[in-house]
Amino acid sequence: MIYHGIDIIEIVRIRHAVERWGERFLRRVYTIGELEDCGALGAAPRYQSLAGRWAAKEAAAKALGVGLSGMAMAASAYERPGMTDIEVARSSDGKPSLCLHGPAATAAAALEITSIALSISHSGAHAIASVVALAREPKE
User: pTM of the full predicted structure?
Assistant: First the structure.
């Protein structure tokens, strides 16, 4: 079984949210590791990286068939994950991957997800992410 999710966001939306709500917004949406990786705890956050991670979290939620806490989506049998339950990590060569925690990990286990692929890209104005999750084939 293949599950797919995709999301696109205007980078300026993340910049405006950071400027308006600051650290409160950042800590609600991103893990400490993500914030450090994006330079968001310093004076010059990389907004395109933050936006890419936002899109990745949204795409992952879509692939898992669950909404994120506080966002409208179809009812699910699972508790809705929060934004920090879906974490974007990077390998030493820069390849992004997903780490699922709490309700996001529960949803993936229920779907019998065996692997997840993540791709993130951004231009001057937008960030986009695509998540493909592979699961065991249903038994007949």
Answer: 0.88
